[in-house]
Amino acid sequence: MEKYLDPEYLSQLVTAYAPKVLGALITLIIGFWLAGVITRYARKGMEKRNMDQSIIPFLCSLISVGIKVMVLIAAASMFGIETTSFVAVFGALAFAVGMALQGSLGHFASGVLILTFKPFKVGDFVEIGGGKSGVVREIQVFNTVLTNVENRRIIIPNSLVTSNPITNITGQGTSGVTLTFGIGYDDDIDKARQIILDVGKSCEFVIAEPPQVVVVSSLGDSSVNLTTRPFCKSENYWDVFFYMQENVKKAFDAQGISIPFPQMDVHTAS
């Protein structure tokens, strides 16, 4: 005990460790300050790229924590602490966690790709391979959330989004609404074509360019199929779709154009 009270011994301790403590403190202060500066610049860069607001805080926290961990390791090494084994243990732990969460990490990486390359954005109507379609409501860190026409919430892991074909139906600003109407073989094709065109002109959401056309797309077993594709603003896609379906049927009925349906004739032997 007397040894630790000896002024000469205390002086030696101060002389030996004061520079290390001072250096470690300076390293911590400057390192944590740099972590804040780099994180702020990273945040501004991500905001300029219009990255989703839900992922920016998460990425910034990863950057900040990563830099601070490196600063702490550097400060520990100034005291003569062996950091090699510490880094090895940390690396092994990170590897084990990564293996356990590889699926989630894959979803996270895919989410970053979606937010970076922007194949779609919130509000777009999309179709994703696998038959899932709907309006994009959220692009989260691990999942993309859609709502379909029935207002059902569809949650798709981001890795499935990026590994499948993506059709952005409304991403161009305008959309063509493809519709097919069947008429009987005895009906007048030109008359039916004009009815469909007139209904399209009467719809307030159909735009003039490109112009609507009606073509014979196929000759079915019991019907001549006419296909049309009126264009509209992306947000009015379903308005045009439902308007055309209802009003073409009404116009066909009023003008005597039949819409065939499958029938079966049964003959009995007498």
Shape category:
rod-shaped
What's the CATH topology name of the largest domain? Answer: Helix Hairpins
Low-confidence segments, given as residue ranges, are none
- Which strand order spans the largest sheet, edge to edge or round the barrel? 4-3-2-1-5
- What composes the largest sheet? 5 strands, antiparallel
Mean pLDDT over the residues: 79
CATH architecture of the largest domain: Orthogonal Bundle
Radius of gyration from the CA trace? 34 Å
Order of helices and strands: HHHHHEEEEHEEEHEEEH
Q: What would you note in describing this structure?
A:
- The chain is an alpha+beta fold.
- It folds into three domains: 7-100, Helix Hairpins, CATH 1.10.287; 119-168, SH3 type barrels, CATH 2.30.30; 174-255, Alpha-Beta Plaits (2-Layer Sandwich).
- It is built from eight helices and ten strands.
- It has a five-stranded antiparallel beta sheet. The protein has a three-stranded antiparallel beta sheet with strand order 7-9-8, with helices on one face.
- α2 (7-48) runs antiparallel to α3 (56-78) and α7 (189-202) packs across α8.
- The longest helix has 42 residues, at 7-48.
- The protein is rod-shaped and about 120 Å long.
- The protein starts with a helix and ends in a 15-residue tail after the last helix.
- The model has no long low-confidence stretch (mean pLDDT 79).
